[in-house]
């Protein structure tokens, strides 16, 4: 009886060792004479990550000491000013209703755009985000010298209006919105303005908090602006760019590190302007790295 128990115990021990060996347990290491390499913390090498991910960045930063509002006179003016046929003025390209404009030469709603050389403006009562109209609208566009450079009567497959224009010179351009002939019409003027703003090259910016390239812009409530080193016509970059955007009080309202997708480590963000005033864009690079970029924008 004693001999039978001894044999059974040995068989059970061999079965346990074989099971551990097959599963890669401690018995396998003992029987093979090999041990798995481990880190000082005891983690097996084959369970360690292949590379360290980019550290989490909340994007939070302190308000600026110099409020952007103090830089209004030196800022790039992207505001749009409108005058209705009745003489009322607003800082948005809004709606109008008029008649007897003689194809947009009298009694017009006037919209002023500040454009820089090379920028593209698309404007209309159709074919642009926010645009609409009824009746036969008519648009005329004038350069800073008052010379008519573009017109639109019937567009978008109907009798509404839409035109695009690339500004050859920097200045204030005028859009006159009316109706064809002596008829009546109404419309909401939608627009988009886009182009490259500036290029920069930087390093050691501590994620765009020091040594940055800054651009001040005047914006109107109701506008939507997209800024980036990628994802826009004229935008480009190399390295890991970083953008921060501050409101007129100097408080950061949005930022962009890695825009992702086809943009990769470049930057792109969209911001709806709720308060009119002077905003500042601070352009730099992630952490202490070096990068370069051409910042472009789209304003609607």
How is this structure best described in words?
The protein is mainly beta. Among the domains are: 68-75 and 196-299, Jelly Rolls (Sandwich); 95-188, Jelly Rolls (Sandwich). Helices cover 9% and strands 41% of the residues. It has 2 helices and 21 strands. The protein has helices at 2-22, 26-32, and strands at 76-77, 80-83, 89-90, 95-99, 109-115, 120-124, 132-135, 137-142, 148-152, 162-166, 171-179, 184-188, 190-203, 213-219, 224-228, 236-239, 241-246, 252-256, 268-272, 277-285, 290-299. The strands form 4 sheets. Strands 6, 10, 13, 15, 16, 19 and 21 form a 7-stranded antiparallel β-sheet that branches. Strands 3-2-5-11-8-9 form a 6-stranded antiparallel β-sheet, with no helix packed on it. The longest helix is centred in the first third of the chain and has 21 residues, at 2-22. The chain is elongated, with a radius of gyration of 32 Å. 33% of the residues are buried. Mean pLDDT is 83; it is low at 1-51.
**Order of secondary-structure elements:** HHEEEEEEEEEEEEEEEEEEEEE
Structural class: mainly beta
What percentage of amino acids are in beta strands? Answer: 35-45%
- Overall pLDDT level: 83
The helix content, as a percent range, equals: under 10%
Give the terminus-to-terminus CA distance.
94 Å
CATH architectural designation of one domain: Sandwich
User: What is the C-alpha radius of gyration, as a whole number of Å?
Assistant: 32 Å
Total E-strand runs? 21
CATH classification, class level of one domain: Mainly Beta
Number of helices: 2
Shape: elongated
């Amino acid at each position: 009886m004693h001999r039978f128990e001894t044999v059974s115990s040995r068989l059970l021990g061999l079965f346990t060792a074989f099971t551990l060996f097959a599963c890669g347990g401690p018995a396998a290491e003992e029987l093979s004479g090999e041990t798995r390499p481990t880190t000082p913390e005891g983690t097996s090498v084959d369970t360690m990550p292949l590379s360290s991910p980019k550290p989490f960045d909340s994007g939070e930063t302190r308000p600026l000491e110099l409020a952007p509002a103090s830089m209004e006179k030196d800022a790039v003016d992207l505001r749009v000013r409108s005058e209705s046929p009745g003489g009322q003025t607003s800082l948005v390209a809004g709606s109008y209703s008029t008649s007897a404009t003689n194809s947009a030469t009298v009694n017009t709603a006037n919209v002023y755009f500040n454009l820089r050389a090379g920028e593209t403006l698309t404007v209309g009562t159709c074919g642009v985000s926010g645009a609409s109209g009824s009746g036969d609208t008519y648009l005329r566009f004038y350069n800073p010298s008052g010379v008519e450079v573009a017109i639109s009567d019937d567009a978008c497959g109907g009798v509404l209006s839409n035109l695009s224009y690339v500004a050859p010179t920097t200045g204030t351009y005028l859009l006159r919105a009316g109706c064809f002939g002596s008829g009546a019409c109404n419309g909401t003027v939608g627009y988009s303005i886009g182009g490259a703003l500036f290029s920069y090259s930087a390093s050691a910016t501590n994620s765009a908090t020091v040594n940055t390239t800054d651009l001040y812009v005047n914006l109107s409530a109701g506008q939507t602006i997209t800024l980036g080193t990628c994802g826009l016509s004229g935008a480009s970059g190399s390295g890991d760019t970083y953008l921060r955007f501050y409101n007129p009080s100097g408080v950061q309202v949005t930022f962009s590190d890695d825009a992702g997708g086809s943009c990769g480590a470049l930057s792109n963000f969209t911001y709806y302007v709720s308060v009119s005033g002077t905003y500042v864009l601070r352009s730099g690079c992630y952490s202490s790295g070096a990068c370069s970029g051409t910042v472009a924008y789209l304003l609607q």
